[in-house]
Amino acid sequence: MASYWISLMRLRPKVVGVVITVLAAILLAACGSSSTTTSTTSSSAAPTTSAPVASTTTSAATGNFNSCSVVTQAEAAGAIGESVTRGVLGNATVEGGLACVFYGPSAPTPTTPNVAQPDSVRVVVVEGSHALTWYNDYRSKVHAQSISGFGDRAYYDGYASLSVLKGDRYFRIAVVPAHAPASVSDEEKLATVVLPKL
Questions:
Q1: Which domains does the chain have, with CATH numbers?
Q2: CA 154, 93, 72 angle in degrees (round to 5)?
């Protein structure tokens, strides 16, 4: 090994510089090649009450359809009435998909997008053949109040979320302010923005 380095050092300084530059570029490319991607997630199983399979969270990606692709940071801020963070994807056990969660300045730390937290906006879109199953499953667990004018069917859960079924897509919106009681009008405001995107 020592003889290799001695031979390398005998080369002209210009060649050594090129070799070092190429090695550095290879190392930088290897370190910087990891990227976060998110893809459309649809539920392929019937609802269960088990814990989420994965707890990995990722920043909202652009391009692919997911819960974060149907609502912007500005739209979430308008619904809760304050500035919010960028959307973060987390598991949505109630709906069987991925939740896009935006946090207000009074959200508890650390934030955990896999569970509901105060001062947040959660948007979940589930698409596919099991959307109706998940819609009905959550409806059976709450004091659902039917609401007209949203999608094919909609209900308020009596706490802080609006569930809407439109075709083979089920979406649920929960707007939970930190210093005010939850109100279905906040969810309805955001639903009017989300519906045309589905």
A1: 2-32 (no CATH), 58-197 (3.40.1000)
A2: 65
